[in-house]
Each structure stands twice: as structure tokens, then as C-alpha cells.
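Not sure how to ask, but would you mind making up any protein sequence you like and the C-alpha cells describing how it folds?
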Amino acid sequence: MSQEKEQHSNDEKVSIQDSAVFDFGGDSTLPPPPVLDEAEEKTLYRKLDARLMPILALLYLLSFIDRGEHASVSFCSKSQLTFSKATLARNAKLQGLTTQLHLSGNQYNIALVRDTFLSEYASRFTANALDHLQYRIGLFFGAASVAGAFSGLLAYGISFMKGVGGLEGWSWIFILEGILTVLAGCLALLGFLTPDERAYIIWKKKYDNSSVGEEEHFEMRHFWSAVCDWQVWLHILIYMSIVAPLYGITLFLPSIINTFGYTPAISQLLTVPPYVFATIVLYAFAHYSDKIQMRSPFIVGGLTMCLIGFSINISSAPHGVKYFGTFLVVGGSYSAFPGIVAWLGNNLAGQYKRGIGMALHIGIGNFSGAIACNIYRAQDSPRYIPGHGLELMFVGLGLVCVPIAVLSYSRINNKRDALEKARVERGDASEYTLEELRKLGDRAPDFRYTL
């Protein structure tokens, strides 16, 4: 056992020495990465998690709250306290946003499209910051589901500020939550790692997905490699199948619950339990996904929950049953999101190809969020059959594409296993140099796709 540890340490030293010829993350001012034992590495990652995860989660929470309050701001135009969009948008709608800004018909829904694409930047930040561990992505994205719970409570409290300073309640929602977002952004600028710690983390990330490291300099072939990769486009379809339900339920949950016959105030409060449930499911899925090193079963699980939830709500079931269905939709869509982000991040090797692939993944995939902003029309209330029907279409798309991805990955992995086994039996040396393996990335013969 001690010999294995010594050998592992020697291999790590060789890798670090080999990496010295490369620029560490483009920052030539960093020292060579130190050699850390297992305990020291765990201590460093605990420090990283303790300082990085809270501020990232806070920023993402505020991002979702800012987007969600729009809907609550529209209902109050009809009844001093009314509700409907994503968490500042959703609540702002209830507090009179649509009335004071003279938004009629589907104009409010169209306004949400802008918000959807602004949120794309937050989603890219998520993927680029934590694309290799679903549990950490889950901790980060879990802030979005927590925001869904808090936004209803915040909007309920802020609604009583109507008339303060001569402003409507919806104005105070934007002002107060905007101030919080700016303050949190200032906190995010504070650094906390030493140069040695930064060097080690950059080196570790470089060798995280590849035994020979990742290329340090961008070339156009990285762009074309990502654009022409079949898995990027297949994952875009899966991403769309999750994001459409997520945005649809996030933006219109208060309006849907309001059709059950509750007052606007009670409707707002009833949005809280589904998001609490979603947060629990999200963390459970993320933990077990990392534990068994698989993504697809949990994505299918989330999509199945959405399928059942939307099927209940499109039916003529009693209101209590439909409310139960909203738990399944919110829980399924939020819990599946970290998995699809982590899955493609696992299966794209090379930092430039991964960055471009994830940008395409999230950027194009968010078009489904724009669609979801416009499918729950006021004239379709109370059953919203076209809206729920289109959401079921997206869910069905995901349930078709996920098995295709799994079968394709399994076939490629099995083929590479067979070739590697044959090479070892023949006693042949590897036909690729280290530089060639770096260039191949996830096409390298020793790379295995995560299922």
C-alpha cells in the first residue's frame, strides 16, 4: 500500500515537472505548482469551497430573485396584491408592473424574452466555474431553487411598501433587490488564494480530464472541433428539454396556482413549498450522481417527474392534485439542470473546446427559455392547455435524446476498451505522443465518456 502511495506521488511529481513547460492558465507570474499529499489537497479544496461556493451561490440566488420578481409585480394592478414570471419578474408582475407600464396582452411575456437571454450569462458562469463536479454545480444552482422560495416571501413583504416615497410596490422590489445584487457583486471581487494555491488548482484543473494535460493556447481548430462535435448538438436538445420546463414553471407558477382559486397573497406563499422540495431533490440527485459517476439516470429521473407533473396539470384533476403536480415539475426541472451541465462538461476534453462547447450548449439551449416565456397566455387560463402541451413536447424530446446519447457513448467506450485491450495483449507501445494526445482531447483512445 505504501509503495502504491509512493508511486502515485512520484507520478504526480513527474506530471508537475512536465507541466512546467506550459503557462499556468495564461498567468506566467505564478510559481510552479507545489506537490500536495491527499490531506493537504482536501484542506485546500475545503478552503476553496468555503470561500467560493457561498459567494457564487449568493450571486446566483440574487440573479434568480431579480428575474423572478417581475411576475409578482403584475397581479397587484388587479387587486392590491397579485401575482405571475421567473422570481423579481414574477413578483413585480403581481405588484402592478404590467398596469403602470401599460403592458397588455402578450407584451409582458415578450418582455421576459430579454430577461431570459440576460440570464444566459449567469448560466455560462455556472458551467465555466464548476463544470467538473455535479455536487458543486448543485450547490451553486441550488441557490436558484432557494431563490424561488424566498422571492415569494420577499415580494409579499415588500408589497406593503406600496406608496412609500410615492412609488408603487413593484418599484421597491426592483430597487431593494438591485441594491443587494450590487453589494454582493462587490464582495465577489475579494481574493483569498495564495500564489502557490492558485498554481496548484490551475495545474489540477489542467490534468482533471486528461492524463496528459490540456492545451494552453487557443487555435481555430478548437472552435471547429466544438462546432462539429455531434455530442454538443445532441446535448443542446437535452438542455432545451430541461430549460423550457424550468423557465415555464419558474415564470408562471404564481399565475398557475392563482387559477386554483386562491387569493394573490396565498398564491405567492404557496409557491414556496415546491421550491423547498426542488432544493432537496436537487442536492440528493447531485450527491448520488457524483457517487456513482453517472449523469443520465438522474436527468431521466428529472424529466420523468416533469412528464408526470405537466400531465397532471393539463388534465381536469382537482386543484389539490394539480398543486402536487407543480411539486413534480419544479423538482424535476431544477434537479435535472446541474446534471446536464456537468454531463457535457465531463465529456468535452480540452479547456478551449469545452468552453466553446458549453457556450453553444447554454447559449443556443436558452432559446427554449425564450419560447417558454410566451406559451402561457392569459386567454388559455385556467388550464393552460397549449402551454402545458408544449412543455410536454420538450420533455418528450429529452426522453428520446438521453437514451441516444447513452447508447452512443457506450458504443464508443466499448470500442476504445477493445482496442486498448488488444494493444496491451500485443505488447505494443502507444502510437501517440503526449502532444498528439493533448490535441485529440476527448477523441483520444484513453478517454472514456461519462454516461
Notes: Residues 163 and 169 are 7 Å apart (CA to CA). Confidence is low (pLDDT under 50) at residues 1-22, 71-98, 102-132. The radius of gyration is 24 Å. The first helix runs from residue 2 to 19.
